[in-house]
Specification:
The complex is a heterodimer of chains A (about 400) and B (about 350). Chain A has 22 helices and no strands. Chain A is mostly helical. Chain A has two domains: about 210 residues, Cyclin A, domain 1; about 120 residues, Orthogonal Bundle (Cyclin A, domain 1). The relative contact order of chain A is 0.13. The chains are: A mainly alpha (about 400), B alpha+beta (about 350).
Chain lengths: ~400, ~350
């Protein structure tokens, strides 16, 4: 019915591997003090996009699309060679148009100036001129290869866990319904786990949070949605208990071999609130889902150290609460993300005073970091090893090439 | 052309900018779209023709036109034999181009060629192809909103494809929403839009399809009004005025009081078109041109009509187009006409 995800540009061209993402950051990596800063920048940019989107009164789906555009653009570009702030504005502007809720270019410029110049960001150089944003939009659409249809996990979440009424409301809010990721484009097409509003909300917020990482470039949206549901069930103890009680009440005649799910999915349908059966019946790779869930937890661990005015509607707070109540000791135990693993001591001292890896990171600090990165990059380009000066402004270069 | 349909060829994998600049050389202009010129161009590597639609950027103060964005998104998610294929997007010299499969003619251009005529079997095929395209669009949740002769393309193999999605949009199948009523070229605009409705669905396309069907037989647009009011009068003159029985909800439409018919006119449709259309064709056209949008035939219903399923002759692809000299689009037809006028004036 709706556009086929498997035939889409999203699936064919924009699900990338880690090597590609690493390659995309090679230039930036030279100019940060330690690699983890790049992960903080991911959070920082996403929260800026979210703030700008909110001010422009964009729906969550549009904000998510803007974030995906931003991530895709920086698969082909470097932070240190571009102005990420005008890119953010252009992403919001294009996403609003692409998702059929256009905003005026003047508003985007005005709101951008407002948001960026707030004290916690302190970015003062945003242009007043509409044409700069329109020009950036052109480069953006070019680098996006005009692939404007983006799929999101929200649809999967609602079709799996929403009650009928909720699903319809969510749908009614979506303009351009035909291009949404349809009811179900993967797995068996069956199975449903009805969630109360609270846990449903939580899964929704977890999905929102995944946009602060590069997950949207790595995994298909329906797997991200399932990982969010999985985390919700783990973290939300009451929901789990409720669902399990229901399952026990219903599953009296059901076979006890629930865990060998794939073969017995026929019987599972009778006990729809059986969590394990539900998960298994989805017929997706559970190890992938677990990987994604692990990455989300890694993101939250990192995010703990990113201090901004508390984002109230994030799944993170719930995570923090239940995680600390469950086992406070494991909170910082994502060993692969330990910065000291990546970091030479030289680099740390070269970076100057602040950036101790366990320090709290603020938006202000990241704004300054970006400025430093850019400056250092410009200096390097002006004085390359070969001694010959080279063109420094990629944007200008392109404008000239474009005539 | 068939080879070109394969995915790898139609969408070269991340070609470099340099490659793309020389990939196509423009042959001639063949049309004027909603937001830019359309060119015929030749792929310099494989010699195949494409249509390049240039999206005007510099004229747009608001950057990338939202209509263009909509058209790109729509076309990227559509794939059907009777819908024009968007091969790829291309950026060159500060412009964005949409690269389409090339179609030799459009319906307006071909129908104006007095030397050429379709047989009844050909017309049936064209009719069915148009309806199949519409059935696909509506199934995908897309309303075209600008069905007219110059947006219906033909190639020399006799294939018909719907084009120009600059006004098209997705609609909600379960809910009717508010849209603008300033859509569809006047001559093909259904009466409910002329009466000011903003709540409508795919049935607006079906009226236009009815107009096209008649036009296929008569060779010229049937309802040629000068403005909205005149357009309604024109329709009434042929189909009669809407009665409460034919269209119960007509009096509830926003502009009904302003533009309602002054006097009652009977329906002359069948007597006027009997000499062109067979009885089953008349029935189908009649169902497509139903005043009441809720009673108008859907594309799927129309495809089941006796005209296609029972009445002879069976349809045949209009392959004779290959023998036609020249390529006929509305633009070329207009040029030809202007040339003729100048000649006549000189004499």
């Amino acid at each position: 019915m709706a556009t086929d995800f498997w035939a889409s540009s999203h699936y064919k061209r924009w699900i990338l591997d880690r090597a590609t993402l690493k390659q995309a950051r090679v230039d930036d990596l030279q100019y940060v003090d330690y690699p983890e800063q790049l992960d903080f920048l991911n959070i920082y940019f996403a929260s800026l996009i979210f703030k700008l989107g909110k001010r422009l009164q964009l729906r969550q789906r549009v904000i998510a699309t803007a974030t995906v555009f931003f991530r895709r653009f920086y698969v082909k570009n470097s932070y240190c060679e571009t102005d990420p702030f005008i890119v953010i504005s252009a992403c919001c502007y294009v996403a609003a148009k692409a998702e059929e809720s256009p905003v005026h270019i003047k508003n985007v410029v005005a709101e951008s100036r407002q948001v960026y110049s707030q004290e916690e960001y302190g970015i003062k150089h945003f242009p007043t001129d509409n044409s700069k944003l329109a020009e950036m939009e052109f480069y953006l659409v070019d680098d996006l290869e005009c692939d404007l249809v983006v799929f999101h996990p929200y649809r999967t979440l609602m079709s799996l866990c929403g009650r009928e009424a909720v699903a319809t409301i969510a749908e009614a809010g979506e303009l351009g319904i035909g291009i949404n990721d349809g009811p179900r484009y993967w797995g068996t097409g069956e199975g449903k786990l009805e969630l109360e509003e609270g846990p449903l909300q939580m899964a929704w917020f977890i999905i929102n949070d995944t946009y602060r990482s590069e997950l949207c470039l790595l995994y298909p949206p329906h797997l991200i949605a399932i990982a969010a549901i999985y985390l919700t069930l783990i973290l939300n103890v009451t929901t789990r208990a409720t669902l399990q009680n229901q399952a026990q009440a219903q599953s009296a005649p059901a076979p006890s071999t629930r865990r060998s799910s794939r073969t017995s999915s026929g019987t599972q349908k009778k006990a729809p609130q059986d969590i394990v059966g539900f998960m298994a019946g989805l017929n997706v790779s559970m190890s992938l889902v677990a990987t994604i869930a692990q990455e989300i937890i890694g993101l939250y661990t990192l995010w703990e150290r990113y201090k901004e005015d508390a984002a109230a509607d994030s799944g993170r707070s719930a995570f923090g609460r239940s995680a600390s109540s469950a086992s406070a000791g494991t909170k910082r135990s994502a060993p692969s993300r330990d910065p000291s693993v990546f970091m030479g001591s030289e680099e740390l001292s070269a970076g100057g005073t602040p950036a101790q890896p366990d320090d709290v990171v603020t938006p202000q600090y990241l704004t300054q970091l970006l400025a430093r990165m850019r400056e250092a990059r410009l200096a390097d380009l002006a004085h390359p090893a070969s001694g010959r000066p080279v063109a420094v402004n990629k944007m200008l270069e392109r404008t000239q090439a474009a005539g | 052309m068939r080879d070109f349909d394969r995915e790898e060829v139609s969408r070269p994998h991340t070609p470099t900018r340099g490659d793309r600049d020389e990939l196509y050389s423009i042959v001639s202009q063949v049309g004027e779209g909603t937001f830019g010129k359309v060119y015929k161009a030749r792929n310099t590597t494989n010699g195949l023709n494409v249509a390049l639609k240039r999206i005007r950027m510099e004229a747009e103060r608001d950057g990338f036109p939202v209509t263009a964005m909509r058209e790109i998104k729509l076309l990227q998610s559509l794939r059907h034999d009777n819908v024009v294929r968007l091969y790829e997007m291309m950026v060159s010299n500060g412009s964005v181009y949409m690269v389409f499969e090339y179609m030799d003619h459009d319906l307006t251009g071909i129908l104006s060629q007095s030397g050429f005529s379709f047989t009844d079997a050909h017309l049936k095929s064209l009719c069915r192809q148009m309806l199949a395209g519409l059935a696909y669009l509506h199934h995908k949740g897309v309303i075209h909103r600008d069905i007219k002769g110059s947006n219906i393309l033909l190639n020399n193999r006799g294939e018909l494809k719907l084009a120009d999605f600059g006004l098209a949009r997705f609609y909600q199948k379960r809910r009717r929403s508010d849209y603008t009523n300033r859509v569809i070229t006047l001559w093909y605009r259904p009466p409910e839009l002329l009466f000011g409705t903003t709540v409508y669905g795919p049935e607006v396309d079906m009226w236009s399809a009815g107009c096209i069907m008649l036009e296929l037989f008569t060779k010229r647009p049937v309802f040629q009004g000068n403005d909205e009011i005149h357009q309604l009068e024109f329709i009434f003159k042929i189909l009669g005025t809407p009665t409460a029985e034919r269209w119960p909800s007509v009096a509830e439409l926003p502009w009904y009081e302003l533009v309602k018919p002054k006097e009652e006119i009977p329906n002359h449709f069948r007597e006027m078109f009997r000499k062109w259309l067979s009885p089953a064709a008349l029935d189908l056209a009649d169902q497509l041109l139903a005043f009441d949008p809720t009673r108008r035939a859907t594309a799927v219903q129309a495809l089941e009509a006796a005209y296609f399923k029972e009445e002879s002759p069976p349809e045949a692809m209009p392959t004779g187009l290959a023998n036609l000299e020249g390529e006929w689009h509305e633009l070329e037809t207009k040029r030809e006409r202007a040339k003729k006028r100048r000649r006549d004036g000189a004499q």
